[in-house]
Design goal:
2 copies of one chain form a homodimer. Chain A is 33% helix and 27% strand. Chain A has helices spanning 57-68, 87-105, 126-139, 145-151, 204-216, 252-274, 293-305, 307-314, 320-328, 359-367, 402-409, and strands at residues 5-6, 17-22, 34-49, 71-81, 112-119, 160-168, 171-180, 193-198, 222-223, 233-238, 282-289, 340-343, 346-350, 353-354, 379-385, 389-398. At the A-B interface, helix 8, helix 9, strand 14 and helix 11 of A face helix 8, helix 9, strand 14 and helix 11 of B.
Chain lengths: 413, 413
């Protein structure tokens, strides 16, 4: 299934897509803050949105659009103002953004999807946005993937971009994606955004189902601090420009496409976790032996999200008791006699009993994991077995450091 | 309903109870580590236990005992070793503890309940425990409430004890309680324990129902770091020694008793939250306007447990956006147009719209809240309204400080 290769280009790697990112003056910093992704032809569009009851105008807008018709030509994303909790005026701003961009691109505004990230309660600076549209439209290009990746981030330390290619009916089929994480140095900037482009032809319902499953296995399995944003959005376009045969039902080809889509989403999700505020390492939790994937994912995410586990990993402390306690409170039934815990290759607990493991070597394993350090792997691997059934799942998180608290406490409104 | 007064004595304030706390040598520190609460006569006993799948032997032991017969004479609690994840040997240790204490007290071991707190994976030091039983039995007294409160704590900064008195059928009826919090300076010491004594006469089923509701409104509504322990235990005894008329079904008398029981549990729960690791203030969240209490409690607990909200309060930052986002992700449906948020008396958001509030004064309100500082209130009050329905609920937590991370990262195994 994984016969794909990594290629350059992000969201503009697949055929028939252009993108750009420019400075519109929405962010006080003067950094890039307005991104456009454009498909040459109308693409099938699928979306997954925040489940938060407090939602941004763009989320309600996209949901309504995709209910009317699961297709789109463009995605417009602004950074700086979240346009959440902004009431009727926020809704009007969203409508106007689509209308103005539609005019400039000469396409119907119904084919434009929207996303926002930034400060909750702040409306988009519409004058700046409207004034920037001509530049946005004139700079959009097939090489603009990285520029778009840069313009959607807020407090992220790095851009997040990936593209994969495989062969289907002897033609190269590509999926590209960009994302921004839940950096929250500024107030209320808790948004996770991801935009995925694909040049396969696929039926709308199938594409939505694939995206929903891929998001459940990736973005929904990362946790930086457990907070879900008002603006979280994943949009995936499929425009058929690869000219590979259309995929209209499940089967080998569909599974291949879904596996690649899932890989793109997992890669971006891990990049977000790795860029978590104050993170010094990525934590990957693998769970096996449950009755189904949902249960395994629940246990994995509970461990990856436990403040006690995260603090212990920051302290490079092989504290298996905290891992066991987190596994046990995930809301999934298992026999504690079946619990097995590994940290890297070190077996810490087996049959529910603590083992006499090599503490110094286990500590050293943890110390050798660090984000951004040359010659060090950045991933701490926690492996859990809770039984002998076929369910398995994964989740990702980062450790909890002094810097997380510092970043989130020291902002002054 | 709240015609009670606070009295001294903790668990030995109600009639017919004795208690003690001694140093048995279970804690390496040499601090008190073994507590006994004894009722002069057989008491009705109710219990609420951890829902964690990884449980201590004492939890399984108490559940089995209370299923067999909802009554007890004594509670034995050791601090130092959690006796969780200790397998068959841990179970044998639990049985032996009860047997040995039963012999010394000349009561059947079935009437002894057990609790443990300490390091997960460590068996109780049985030789030390058995050697200490004569001293335990000889020191038990009607003045021993505070000694017991002291012997059950581990990393708690302060003991937690309360007693209330009211009049029922013209006789004083009393409820006392002690608790320990989820201090986790040492590894895996995530235990919440509480023991409640009462001298009312009440039917076993009614007493269990009252305790379950009281725990749902108190201990289940506090959150220090979201981790649920392997050993969490609340046991409540009612021995009838007040000689007030027996309560056998719901009605005015039962409601009065339950209100007082709930108040005892809330008081102890708040004391635990206030003593959360690194806490600089207590956070109380009040939610109104939901369809029922469960929904309101869910929203309240999600806000009190949000790392972003907790970090903002530590930074004394009136960050309403984080509160709104946490309310929205609690899993309770409401219209964002109905959302109202207050911090103290300051209205920050109304009808889902951010308001232009006095930031300096709101900051000052937050700065004037501090645990343990003379002349300062220690409670930050967050009030949320999500509609006009009758459901309301409360939750408590503490802020997230540098010290939380420090305490939980720097332990070395």
């Amino acid at each position: 299934m994984s016969d794909w290769q990594v290629i350059n280009g992000g969201v503009t790697a697949p055929k028939g897509y252009q993108a750009t990112g420019i400075t519109a003056g929405l962010k006080p910093s003067g950094a890039e803050d307005l991104a456009l992704i454009l498909s040459d032809v109308t693409a099938i569009a699928a979306g997954v949105f925040t489940t938060n009851q407090v939602r941004a105008a763009c989320v309600d807008y996209c949901r309504q659009r995709l209910e009317d018709q699961p297709s789109a030509r463009a995605i417009l994303c602004n950074a700086g103002q979240a346009n959440a909790a902004t009431g009727d005026l926020g809704w009007q701003d969203a409508m106007e953004s689509a209308t103005e961009l539609g005019k400039a691109l000469n396409i119907s505004p119904e084919f434009i999807l929207l996303a926002s990230t930034g400060v909750i309660g702040k409306r988009i600076k519409m004058d700046a946005l409207k004034a920037a549209i001509p530049q946005l439209v004139s700079t959009v290009s097939a090489e603009g993937g990285e520029a778009a990746a840069k313009a959607i981030i807020t407090t992220d330390l790095v851009t997040k971009s990936i593209a994969l290619e495989t062969l289907m009916s002897d033609r190269p089929v590509r999926i590209g994606g960009i994302a921004k994480g839940s950096g929250m140095i500024h107030p209320n900037m808790a948004t996770m955004l991801s935009f995925v482009t694909c040049d396969a032809a696929v039926s709308p319902q199938l594409w939505q189902e694939m995206l929903t499953r891929a998001v459940n296995r990736s973005f929904n399995q990362i946790t930086v601090d457990g907070d879900t944003s008002t603006n979280d959005t994943v949009i995936a376009l499929a425009n058929g420009q690869s000219r590979a045969s259309a995929i209209t039902n499940m089967g080998a080809e569909a599974e291949k496409l879904e596996a690649m889509l899932t890989e793109v989403c997992i890669s971006l999700a891990k990049a977000i976790a790795r860029d978590g505020e104050g993170a010094t390492c990525l934590i990957e939790v693998q769970v096996t032996g449950t009755s189904d994937e949902v249960s395994a994912n629940k246990i994995a995410k509970t461990i990856a999200g436990s403040s006690l586990v995260k603090s212990a990993i920051f302290g490079r402390d092989p504290n298996w008791g905290r891992i066991a306690a987190a596994a046990g409170r995930a809301g999934v039934m298992f026999e504690q006699e079946d619990l097995q815990i590994r940290l890297g290759n070190f077996l810490l607990m087996d049959n529910g009993q603590p083992l006499d493991f090599d503490q110094a070597a286990t500590r050293e394993y943890l110390k050798q994991r660090a984000v951004g350090e040359y010659l060090k792997d950045d991933t701490v691997l926690i492996t859990i077995k809770v039984g002998d059934r076929i369910g398995n799942g994964k989740a990702w998180g980062c450790d909890l450091s002094y810097d997380y608290v510092k970043i989130n406490a020291e902002y002054t409104t």
